[in-house]
Amino acid sequence: MLLFDGAGGLKVNTSDPREIYVLRGSSDPMEFDSVTAWHLNAKNVAHMVLATRFELRPNDVVFVSEKPVTRWNRTLSQITPQIVNLGASAVN
Fold first, then answer.
1. What's the count of helices (H) and strands (E) in the chain, helices before strands?
2. Nearest to 68 by CA among 2, 5, 19, 10
3. I need a labelling partner for 16 at 20 to 30 A (CA). Which of 10, 74, 78, 92 fits?
4. Its domain of life (predicted)?
5. Does position 8 have pLDDT exceeding 70, yes or no?
6. Residues 26-54: pLDDT tens digits?
7. Strand ranges (DSSP E) for 13-81?
């Protein structure tokens, strides 16, 4: 799921700005399973000021969680067709 808009910002309808993460693996081959994670709550203005000092590096992974309501909506959209089909089968 794409949580960024075309301009590089977060999609307001689906992204949770309180749950932004940067994941960085170790460059040392001996530390293959070593990952460092940073968390950003973009709803907090003080955190945003500190975030401007954070430098992304090649191979960093930026993960933005979706809003809980987005997950709920996806669940409902997956269940609803099955309920409709069950109702239609019962009528026939």
1. 2, 3
2. 19
3. 78
4. Bacteria
5. no
6. 887 787 778 999 999 988 888 888 888 88
7. 15-25, 35-40, 61-66
